[in-house]
Write a structure and sequence with these properties.
Strand order of the largest sheet: 2-3-4-1-5
Distance between the termini: 31 Å
Shape: globular
Largest sheet: 5 strands, parallel
Order of helices and strands: HEHEHHEHEHEHHHHHHH
Radius of gyration: 19 Å
Strand content: 5-15%
Oligomer: single chain
Structural class: alpha/beta
């Protein structure tokens, strides 16, 4: 039997925000279940745009014309791909009667939070979607959660070989879709080494000088690496 995880606490929090604000923003790392949660709450009546897809970006090449005729819930997935949409949403969110509300999904918060905060101040509510929590998988599974991690796909697929392949693909996607897009001059080899160090730093007092020496970079660069990891939910 295929296992499912019902994230009822997050679903309830999302429904509440959608009632309270014209714009709701779901933030979290890649593959933590933002799209699945949005589909669960929105059902089949929402209008979805996955901005990783060229067809969706083409449909929003004139966003004012496309979005002004939408009604109900409009979901914009991976919205950090088109940050200019934030200013477009402002007048749409202010329309009387709220003919449409907007749910934005993003996996890189650096520009997204800034863009929403500047363009949609007072109109947007945020909800962070973390990895699986113990209350979602059951208290008898704490060891499995600790060793397999909180990402949905490795959790639902019990195979160790699958998890190994999935993690490698995840790192490649994270590095070259998110990080390199945001920071095109980044040394991706050193940054990957930094990612591999993070697990060993868990629970320790952070020493930037020690991390910088281990990576062969300056302390300001090491601090930048931590800021990037934090801003992309790693």
């Amino acid at each position: 039997m295929h296992e499912t995880v019902l994230r009822t606490r997050l679903a309830a929090a999302l429904r509440l925000r959608l009632k309270e604000a014209p714009v709701t923003v779901l933030l979290g790392a890649r593959q933590t279940g933002k799209t699945t949660l949005a589909q669960l709450v929105a059902g089949d009546k929402a209008t979805f745009y996955d901005l990783e897809e060229p067809t969706a970006r083409a449909a929003l090449s004139t966003p004012e014309l496309t979005l002004r005729d939408c009604r109900g819930l409009v979901v914009l997935d991976e919205v950090q791909r088109m940050p200019h949409l934030f200013s477009v949403l402002r007048p749409l969110a202010d329309r009387p009667g709220r003919p449409a509300s907007f749910l934005l999904l993003g996996s890189a918060s650096l520009d997204l939070v800034k863009g929403v905060s500047e363009s949609l101040a007072g109109r947007a509510l945020f909800l962070q979607v973390p990895g699986l929590a113990l209350d979602e998988v059951g208290p008898g599974r704490q060891n499995r959660l600790w060793f397999r991690g909180g990402f949905l796909e490795p959790w639902l697929n019990p195979g160790d070989e699958f998890r190994t392949r999935w993690v490698e693909q995840y790192i490649q996607t994270y590095l070259f879709r998110d990080v390199k897009r945001l920071f095109p001059g980044l040394d991706d080899v050193r940054f990957r080494r930094f990612l591999e160090m993070l697990g060993g730093l868990s629970g320790r007092v952070l020493n930037y000088a020690e991390v910088a020496r281990a990576l062969g970079v300056s302390q300001p660069t090491a601090r930048d690496y931590f800021a990037i990891a934090h801003g992309t939910f790693v």
